[in-house]
Task: structure prediction
Amino acid sequence: MDEQLQEDWLDAQLREEAPYIDDAGFTARVVQQLPAGRRQSRVVRVSVLLGVTFVACVIAYLVSGGGRFLADAATFLVAMPLATVCAIAGLCAITVMGVSAYAAASNARELRL
Result:
């Protein structure tokens, strides 16, 4: 609640119109002399992201014992009673729905402001 009040105060301060101080075009000249921003190719960014993701997956696979934990987890789940598996799945579904409802409510509250 206190954070919301602080954000409202900050918004009010930022929206108040401050008088412009005439600088005889100094700001415009400085902005014109700034170097153009470097633009990275979208392909390069995607390639780097995919490459890093692949390397991280390989490292995780090797560190985890070659994926043996997946076989162990599958064996553990098969040995569990069906009621327990259904209860775990239900709790996961309720958790996902709760987080989704919170996100939707938060988004709706932001749109109203």
Summary: The chain has a mean pLDDT of 86. The first helix runs from residue 2 to 15.
